[in-house]
Every structure is written in C-alpha cells, then in structure tokens.
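BUG: 3D viewer hangs when loading the predicted structure for this chain

Environment: internal workstation, default settings.
Expected: structure renders.
Actual: progress bar stalls at 90%.

Input used:
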Amino acid sequence: MAFDADEMRREDAVRDPKCKFALYVAERDGHTVGVGGHDQPISSYNPRLFYLNLYVDPDARGRGVGTALYQHVHEAVSEYRPAILRNTALVKEGDEASSRFAKVRGFREDKQIFESHLDVANFDPTPYEGLEPSLTAQGITFTSLKDLRDHDPHGDRKFYDLFAEVRRDVPRTEPATDIPFERFVDLAYNDDDFLQEYTLVAMDGDACVGLSGVYQNEIRGGWDNGLTGVRREYRGRGIALALKVKSITTAKALGVPLLVTDNDSTNAPMLRVNTKLGFVRQPAWLSVVWRLEPAA
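Structure tokens produced before the viewer hung:
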C-alpha cells in the first residue's frame, strides 16, 4: 500500500471538523514499520460509525507489530463509544493471514469490492460508433466539467446536484449522507488529481443528467475512473455506456495506458458495463465490519 504525503495533507486540510480522526505510526530502530488510525468520512457520516485502517510493512509482519498497532487504535477509538467499526484497508481475497487477523478481532466479511483494469491501448471503439449520434438525436450532448464551469455561472451547483442524486443509488457499505455544497467544492475542486478537463457531463439542454469522473493516478501511471452515473429518469438509454466509451477513447488518444475502476459486488448494472468494455476484474477486496450493537 503506497502513501502519498501530499494527498494526506490535502485530506487533512479539508476534513470536516465533526469527523473524528487520528493517525499513528509504529517505529522500530527509527524506521516506520506500520501505520494505523481511525476516521469518519463525511460521505457516509454516522457519529458512531468509524473506519479503521491498518498497514504493516510486509518485512515486519508476524512480529506483533499489527497486533500492537491495532490495540492502540482500538483503545483510541473506544472513547467515542462506536457502534460500527469498518476496515478501510480492505482484506485482499486470498490473503488468509489478514483475514484471520480481522476475524479473531470480531470482524466479519459482508461485501466484496471489485477493482477492474482496462488496457487502454487494446480498446476497440468500433462497436460503439453509433452510440453518441443516437443520443445526440435524442437531445443528449456531452461536455467536460471544465467547460461547464467556464461557461455556465450555475455549473458548480448543477454538477453538485447531479452528483448528490446519483451517488445515493450507488451500492455502498454504509448509507450515503449528503455532503454540503461548500464542502463538496473544497473536496472536489481543490483535489489536484481530479481531472476536470476530462471529467464528462451528459447534458439534456441546460440540465446535467449524467457524469463520469476521472482522476490522475501517478502511482499506477494511469487514470482512475471514479463515479459514473445517470439520473434515474434517463437510465436505460446507454448514457452511462457512452460516458465510459468517451472517457476511454480520450485516454487512448492521450496515451494513457491504464484505466482503473472499482465497484461494489452488488452493483450489477455497472459491472456489466465494465465487463462489456473489456475491464478485467482483479482479485476482490473483502469489506469487513464489526457491529458492536445491533443495526438500527
């Protein structure tokens, strides 16, 4: 697991004050051998829901570092009387040691998250050549988020309203909570990895009806395809597929070698779209949860 110090600093700068957060490091002989902490994302905020993370250097595993670090994090979060603990450093499918570590501490698997990779150079857009003209004939056009913001004084609010509606229907481990508009602006537009010029918005006249977000991933040397979604009344017309195809063809034209996306195992519609486009599923990440109190 790689850490981007600049990204961590940016997240610290825009974190909502109500979200409890702490980060700890484990050191041996002056070297960091583990990192752990707890957090509360504003996107699924519950005052008694906490996400735990725990990373140990592979060379330091099996020596008690993870156990000591987890105990420290668990004691720190216990003062807030958590009802639900989730693991943000998801357990990799087939990693029996990590799975045992989670299970003996009360965590149980409840979902799988599929990360999928697309070899952009081998993508063939030919089967989809008629898709955009068909949508154009129905009044659906496409623009970049940058152009929307540059030419529509209400662009930020329109994009936010679209994002807020679409994300409510995306399967997730915990219910989505609304992100205030001002906080959304801080989170989205101050993120240097968020590629506004390549993030696409589907339009019906002046209305934003679909989106597909794109982020630079310098560690992987490619792009991350973030949230792709369409307003409920516009679904079933191929708009999400068209957004994906346009993102891939743009990436191919720019020489981007890899597109990465991830989906909840229950998000069947988007998994079908990704499979159709040639995305290859990687071994699943296992979402694990410990419910200290019965679900309300």
